[in-house]
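Posting for a labmate who doesn't have an account.
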Amino acid sequence: MSAIAKDLLQIMTVRLKMQEAGITSPSQSVRDATKQLVAKLEAVAPDEEIEVAIINNDPLYAKYIRTKTGQVLAEIHG
């Protein structure tokens, strides 16, 4: 599945704020990866395509990859 960077940034920023406020409480590794992803998405062109590769659902393992360069922005292990 792919997403546009600005849309993904908006979604992940909301998730990060929820994590920081204690509304959600994922593992520390998920919080760290979310924070890393938000920081890296802020540096990407808003219209750039980001591939969201779900490697596994249980437990969650997802990679966020810049389609243009192949750079892995973050990996979330749940």
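Reply:
Got it, the structure tokens are right above this. The longest helix spans residues 5-21.
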